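Quick one, T. Sequence first:
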Amino acid sequence: MTHRSVADLMTPTAVSVAPETTFKEIARLLDEYDITAVPVVDEAGRPVGVVSEADLVRRHVHGGGADTAAALMSSPAVVARPEWSVVRAAGVMDESRVKRLPVVDGEDRLIGVLSRSDLVQLFLRRDRAIQEEIVEDVITRTLGLSPSALSVDVTEGRVTLSGTVRDPELVPALLKLCEAVDGVVTVTDRTQPEP
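Structure tokens:
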């Protein structure tokens, strides 16, 4: 059972700006590409910060001389790696209170951007794919249970487990593993111990 990676969901060719890019040009790019933030990269293509809509609004409200990306950006840039699981990336976004993560390669060069809206794609995963992963990976491979002993019903990402379990102590692990499957919204346990 593997979570999808950042590389699976990121937008590969990211819009970026140089430190000397002007306030107006940044505003134009955010509007043109319908994005909420843009990475600021150095000459080597490495992210040094991020300018968000909030940074532009803050500058407009409070005034001041910040009129280039270097003066407006939040720095250092909080980044992700393409091999990270989307769960790890979502945790970093939440901890850092950011909506987008520049994705960097082994040399720390920008190769893409992962946004919250990219993460929402996980919840659009088809029910049949979720059901197959639970039956094949969770029930059979990971827990070593017979797939015929349990029934897995998935509707709109909501999983209902029913049937009999020979070892009731396995149920908490079963539920936790099902909840960790990409695309699962909730898990309802209707299993019963084997008589």
